[in-house]
Amino acid sequence: MNLYKQIWDELSVIDVSAHIEKKGNLSYLSWAWAYGTLMKYYPHNSYSFSHETFPDGTMMVECMLTIQYGEEMAMRSMWLPVLDFKNKPIANPNAFQINSTRMRCLVKCISMFGLGHYIYAGEDLPSGKEVEVAQPKKRINKEMKQQYVTAFLEALENEDAIGLKELGDELREDEDMMSAVWSEFSSKQKAEIKAILDQLRKNTL
């Protein structure tokens, strides 16, 4: 699965309503909660800020957010002007105002990956989806996965039905690992494994 889609599918279904802050008629997501949630799902992330100052002294802040998952990487950027309490651009903003805008811009950048994106469209809940609290995907130990694959292939080559059954029983306790291991086999290998296990079941009835 494409990493951008994976992140979007996980984060966009989360109900963020309990963590929304109001400023005038606008809604904002708590930056501490938003970043904490991102860390829960994708801890290998980094962000940076830059800014542009215009001739009238107002400033635009930009955030670049990078998420790494295994060997894949996803990047998005977002920008936000430094605003006052009336949501008007501030000329010559001070450090506090710039810092506040940076954190709001980070949240907006996280929303580009899916988390709370719907509040920027003025919606109360994620549209077209059942609201749920998604669970982080478990990261697969690649070395352990390869050990399982090798053990399965050796058992298959030797037509070791007992060995195949024991490996299968062990993996049933870890569905994520089972899915990762099973995906390494060709359709022919899967059929051969299934046939050997089916025969074993018949012989033990």
List keywords for this structure.
205 residues, alpha+beta, Enolase-like, domain 1, 2 domains, two-stranded antiparallel ribbon, 5 strands
Number of helices: 7
**Could you say which overall geometry the principal axes of the C-alpha atoms support?**
elongated
Extract low-pLDDT stretches: 123-135
**Helix content percent band:** 40-55%
Give, in order, the helices and strands. Answer: HEEHEEEHHHHH
Strand residue percentage: 15-25%
Number-wise, the strands total 5
Q: Please identify the structural class as seen in this structure.
A: alpha+beta
Q: Over the alpha carbons, how many angstroms does the gyration radius reach?
A: 25 Å
Mean pLDDT over the full residue set: 84
Instruction: Report strand order across the widest sheet.
Output: 3-4-5
Q: What is the straight-line distance between the termini?
A: 41 Å
Mind describing the biggest β-sheet? 3 strands, antiparallel
**CATH-level-2 architecture of the largest domain:** 2-Layer Sandwich
What is the domain tally?
2
- CATH C-level name of the largest domain: Alpha Beta
CATH topology of the largest domain: Enolase-like, domain 1
